């Protein structure tokens, strides 16, 4: 009975966030690479990004995510300056560098479940119109999947549960595919994660139906220039899995002088998301706060997410136009 009780706790923790197996991000607009490998190197920058997210602060066992990512473009030559008119100059590549590379390491905890691993991405970029780029990406993911037995106490030191794969953990390989379209005025992407749907073989019939399901992401954004200083960016992110009810983030961001932004979004499972950020030279700092409209908000202090990023290559390696951060 004691073993069955903790198995039930584990299964409940897996379904705590509506079947949430992969981490959520509130500031995905500022690092789309975390949800789509085709983004790697798409803007011509070399970028480093650190994200820390604490979901439902104050609630024991709530999801917690840390990630560090890097991405860059392999350029065959430096970019050259071309004069298009007496008043306008633009950067164009002498020869296109079509390959983007990237990777990140992550640690994600959700209840008793812990995932620690990495992802390596390859992206191929091509111009389909003078100012529209189509990118396709493929990523390999590997992570260690385990249950934190330190959070459970057993009276019997010979309890079989303590010696099976659930405690020791397993290595799970998987893959992600993505498509990304980037233009000076808009961007859109689609990706599918956990393509292999690797089963977590934990050595007990109770887990025979616990699979790592495919997750699908569709996002997009459009830029409206209100005046020389202000821009308006409506955006959406749609996510679903084969068992998770479809969920969408719909929001709008105001950008001031390309160096300060603030926005508000609504998540369809009942949450309001506020974010604010600033750019200083090649450094970007963003903060997001989620206020859930569900009952759990009464016992938490909300969800907090911090993003720190560095971007290099704003001269000889820059593109004809730059994807806004």
Q: What gross morphology would you assign?
A: globular
Task: State the assembly state of the protein chains.
Answer: single chain
Fraction of residues in helices? under 10%
Tally of contiguous helical segments: 2
CATH topology category name? Porin
Structural class: mainly beta
Order of helices and strands: HEEEEEEEHEEEEEEEEEE
Low-confidence stretches: 1-18, 78-91, 316-325
Number of domains: 1
The gyration radius over C-alpha positions equals: 22 Å
Major β-sheet annotation: 14 strands, antiparallel, barrel
CATH H-level homologous superfamily name: monomeric porin ompg
Proper CATH architecture: Beta Barrel
What is the typical, i.e. mean, pLDDT?
78
